[in-house]
Amino acid sequence: MEKFDWSEGIENYIDALSSGSAVPGGGSAAAAAAAFGCGLALMAIATTLKLKSTNPAFITPLASAENGLKTSLGKFKNFVTQDSVVYQKYLETKKAAKADPSISINPALKEIAVVPIDCALECMVVLKETGKIKSGVAPMIISDMNCAEHLLLAALKCCVENMKINLPYVKEAAVEEMLKQTIEQALKTAEARP
Question: What is the CATH number of the domain that holds 178?
Answer without folding.
Answer: 1.20.120.680
